């Protein structure tokens, strides 16, 4: 997330008395769009390199011989010849530095290696899984935003009862673990009402429960954030001036205040992406839905290292793309960033 | 950004907004009562549920919730309320240890970044930024890939996965305290660097740490149970909440209570931690 966004959320927990004496105003982030994207590109290359390096180091920490792992784990009967052949095939007989550079080179060219367990190339395997997860995450994001918008606007208008109900709902929703929410939704909608399939079938009906499971906790977080910033926005001068110009309540709320109120929530998109990916691991497993998350979990269970690295790299690329989208969305929603 | 940073931020913002500002509201009182119940169940489970969590009674298998078995019984007739109560200790220990690991690492990284000058700050910050490209559960899964599944690994995994969030909050806290007037006064009075750090800066960052820890335990319990649920944490015979929920999933069409109640305790623990954390935050502010 960007420094500007962090500033907007005031992550300083200073006690009241601890006001800074020398106020050094942070220069407002007012860059041109190409400049912003160029800075992002440099950052992206660095993050991808660092993610690849951390993953490489972590994999080296796995106890045991990787060649044995490829041939079926430590218990299996393996001949020395077979081990030697596997080492040569996967480059494990090379010095560590050579392996590291070779891996970076392969990753840079988009080659994620060969799966130990499935004995097929990882890149086409994961690309095939990507669509399902993207569809799930994107739908969940849209639904979560809709829920959050409705909750935030309703609970700031409806008096004390709506306030308590709204904020209580949001706190509980944000605390709901995906695995339990999914179970509860399956019991309610599949077992008792019989309305929706308990596992994800192809087609829209099979998507409803997985999307709801991902969207509800996210909506809890987004709703809390939006309500706070909506209240701040409603007290601000530009809302007063809109009212003075004779704008109706609906116009003030939906056009002026809400646009301002959505900024902090937009700046959290990077986090929301991570939360959706984490959630996808659980949701895809529960609903038996093919996708990156379920592939990742299976790979961790059988210690299929190349697949794990592949998912980690794809998620890192996704995270970076999400930060770029966040920048663009802020650029569109916040005119102050555009003023030169 | 991490879940924790958002939680901490929300707690800070919500304080001024509540329409009525009583010191202790109904929600806090309820949360406190449930926390007391959890602590009792963790230290002396037989006080809460006198039965044996492993006592098998095949004749009363799959009973729905009733007066004798509040939360029903499982496939071998074990009482679910007893099992959930006896599982409290295990789940809370994992959550607390994971929080301690995350908070400890966060304190080390955050203090380094906040106190050791620009170069260290820059390096630590870039490192944290990279870690944020691994979403929490993915980082935990990577740790499990390296060290193998199990309750201990799951604890470490959750601790490591939450550390970046703690580090960033602590760094921000240190930096804001560092520029406070009383620190400047101490500098003017000629106090040494370490003396200022130990006597003035650290005490002022400790209270928020307490709040963070409370918020964090709820989150850590949820994550650790998620790992158990996925079959990578505590294994099924243990009366750990995530493992119980996972075991109950098999019978979800016929015995919903087997999965529902362990999960309900996870949710209640998370909500309790959130509201207590926020109440503590308000206390710290208005004290």
Descriptors:
heterodimer, A: 340 residues, mainly alpha, B: 287 residues, MetI-like fold, 72% helix, ABC transporter permease (chain B), membrane (chain B), MetI-like (chain B)
How would you characterize this protein structure?
The complex is a heterodimer of chains A (340) and B (287). Chain A contains 14 helices and no strands. Chain A has helices spanning 3-8, 33-60, 66-70, 80-90, 96-108, 122-155, 159-175, 178-192, 204-234, 237-244, 249-267, 269-286, 292-301, 305-333. Chain B has one domain (28-44, 58-286): MetI-like (MetI-like fold), CATH 1.10.3720.10. The chains are: A mainly alpha (340), B mainly alpha (287). Chains A and B meet through helix 2, helix 7, helix 8, helix 9 and helix 12 of A and helix 1, helix 5, helix 6, helix 7 and helix 8 of B.
What's the short version?
Chain B: Residues 88-277 form the ABC transmembrane type-1 domain. With 340 residues, chain A is mainly alpha-helical.
């Amino acid at each position: 997330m960007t420094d500007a966004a962090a500033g907007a959320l005031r992550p300083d927990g200073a006690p009241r008395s601890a006001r800074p004496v020398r106020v050094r105003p942070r220069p407002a982030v007012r860059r041109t769009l190409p400049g912003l994207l160029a800075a992002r590109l440099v950052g992206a290359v660095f993050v991808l390199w660092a993610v690849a390096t951390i993953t490489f180091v972590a994999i080296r920490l796995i106890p045991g011989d990787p060649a044995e792992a490829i041939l079926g784990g430590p218990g299996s009967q393996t001949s020395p010849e077979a081990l030697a052949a596997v080492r040569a095939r996967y480059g494990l007989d090379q010095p560590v530095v050579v392996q590291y550079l070779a891996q970076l080179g392969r990753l840079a060219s988009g080659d994620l290696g060969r799966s130990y367990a499935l004995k097929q190339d990882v890149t086409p395997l994961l690309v095939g899984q990507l669509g399902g997860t993207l569809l799930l995450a994107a739908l969940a994001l849209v639904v979560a935003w809709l829920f959050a918008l409705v909750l935030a606007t309703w609970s700031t208008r409806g008096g004390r009862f709506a306030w308590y109900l709204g904020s209580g709902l949001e706190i509980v929703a944000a605390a709901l673990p995906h695995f339990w929410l999914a179970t509860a939704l399956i019991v309610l909608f599949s077992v008792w009402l019989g309305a929706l399939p308990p596992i994800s079938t192809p087609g829209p009906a099979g998507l409803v429960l997985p999307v709801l499971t991902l969207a509800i906790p996210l909506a809890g977080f987004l709703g809390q954030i939006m309500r706070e910033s909506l209240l701040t926005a409603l007290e601000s001068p530009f809302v007063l001036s809109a009212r003075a110009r004779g704008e109706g309540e609906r116009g003030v709320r939906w056009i002026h205040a809400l646009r301002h109120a959505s900024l902090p929530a937009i700046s959290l998109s990077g986090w929301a992406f991570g939360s959706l990916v984490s959630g996808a691991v659980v949701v895809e497993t529960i609903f038996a839905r093919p996708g990156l998350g379920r592939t990742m979990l299976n790979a961790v269970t059988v210690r299929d290292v190349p697949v794990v690295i592949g998912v980690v790299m794809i998620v890192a690329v996704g995270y970076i793309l999400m930060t770029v989208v966040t920048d663009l969305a802020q650029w569109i929603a916040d005119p102050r960033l555009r003023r030169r | 950004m991490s879940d924790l940073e958002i939680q901490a931020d929300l707690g800070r913002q919500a304080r001024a907004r509540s329409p009525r500002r009583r010191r202790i509201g109904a929600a806090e009182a309820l949360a406190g009562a449930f926390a007391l119940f959890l602590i009792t169940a963790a230290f002396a489970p037989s006080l809460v549920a006198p039965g044996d969590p492993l006592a098998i009674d095949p004749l009363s298998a799959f009973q729905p919730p009733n007066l004798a078995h509040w939360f029903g019984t499982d496939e071998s007739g074990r009482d679910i309320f007893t099992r959930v109560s006896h599982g409290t200790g295990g789940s809370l220990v994992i959550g607390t240890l994971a929080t301690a690991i995350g908070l400890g690492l966060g304190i080390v990284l955050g203090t380094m970044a906040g106190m050791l000058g620009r170069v260290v700050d820059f390096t630590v910050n870039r490192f944290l930024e990279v870690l944020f490209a691994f979403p929490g559960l993915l980082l935990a899964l990577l740790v499990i890939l390296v060290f193998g599944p199990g309750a201990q690994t799951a604890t470490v995994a959750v601790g490591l996965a939450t550390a970046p969030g703690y580090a960033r909050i602590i760094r921000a806290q240190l930096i804001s305290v560092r520029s406070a007037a009383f620190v400047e006064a101490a500098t003017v009075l000629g106090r040494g660097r370490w003396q200022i750090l130990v006597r003035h800066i650290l005490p002022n960052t400790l209270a928020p740490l307490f709040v963070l820890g409370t918020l964090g335990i709820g989150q850590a319990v949820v994550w650790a149970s998620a790992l158990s649920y996925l079959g990578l944490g505590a294994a099924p015979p243990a009366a750990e909440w995530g493992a119980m929920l996972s075991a109950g999933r098999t019978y979800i069409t016929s015995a919903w209570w087997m999965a529902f109640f362990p999960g309900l305790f996870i949710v209640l623990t998370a909500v309790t931690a959130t509201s207590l954390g926020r109440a503590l935050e308000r206390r710290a502010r208005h004290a």
